[in-house]
Write a structure and sequence with these properties.
By secondary structure, the protein is mainly alpha-helical. Helices cover about 60% and strands about 5% of the residues. It has 10 helices and 3 strands. Strand 1 and strand 2 form a beta hairpin. Helix 8 crosses helix 9 and helix 9 crosses helix 10. The radius of gyration is 19 Å and the shape is globular.
């Protein structure tokens, strides 16, 4: 009879694996609800939803790279939205100001839950240790120290590594950036699969 003996270490591993598996639960639920209401979301609705994700990240004190990753788009596209949409630019500025106004004391934890979530998504997507730390404004050394001090953080990082796709097609930063791209089609943002050329008729690729 081959039974696994449960230990504190195995319980921690199981908890970390379950936590990583649930990282995208909110986005998946929101997407399913939008589809239930209107079928396939329109291009405008898809863009608005991703803008909202970026705004939420900014309000929680995350920087541009983390906001883009949380929204599932590139930093270049996020900056493009701000340059062309004054209301979105103003909302991002207000979100950052709110984050500064409610910033924790200097000696508080280096990561808040939102930043940890983004860091783990970066690791799961293929980012190396220093790359993942940089996405949330940390140094690689600080992240190593945090992992040494917290068994839970160490377990989550290990679980995120285990959850990486088995077959990676690209190297470098693209390993952990979004799995699709948004392109301009008649002034609206549309989804286009990566890799591959932009769909015919696209005005520009961002």
């Amino acid at each position: 009879m081959d039974e696994r003996r449960e230990t504190p270490a195995s319980r921690l591993t199981d908890w970390a694996d379950e936590t990583i598996a649930g990282l995208d639960a909110r986005e998946d639920a929101d997407r399913s609800l939008r589809q239930a209401l209107r079928g396939r979301p329109s291009l405008r609705e898809e863009t608005a939803a991703r803008m909202a994700d970026a705004l939420r990240a900014a309000a929680l004190g995350l920087g541009p790279a983390a906001c883009a990753l949380e929204a599932g788009v590139s930093e270049r596209l996020l900056l493009g939205w701000q340059s062309r949409d004054a209301s979105f630019a103003a909302a991002m500025a207000a979100a950052r100001e709110m984050a500064r106004a409610h910033a924790p004391a200097p000696r508080a934890a280096a990561l808040n839950p939102a930043a940890l979530r983004v860091l783990l998504k970066a690791v799961r997507g293929g980012a190396l240790h220093a790359e993942a730390a940089a996405v949330v404004g940390m140094s690689g050394r600080a992240l190593y120290r945090l992992r040494r001090e917290s068994p839970e953080i160490a377990a989550l990082v290990a679980a995120a590594r285990r959850a990486r796709p088995k077959k990676g097609g690209r190297r470098g930063r693209e390993r952990y950036e979004q799995g699709y791209r948004l392109v301009e089609v008649d002034g609206l943002a549309a989804r286009g699969a990566l890799p591959g050329p932009a769909p015919a008729g696209d005005a520009s690729v961002l």
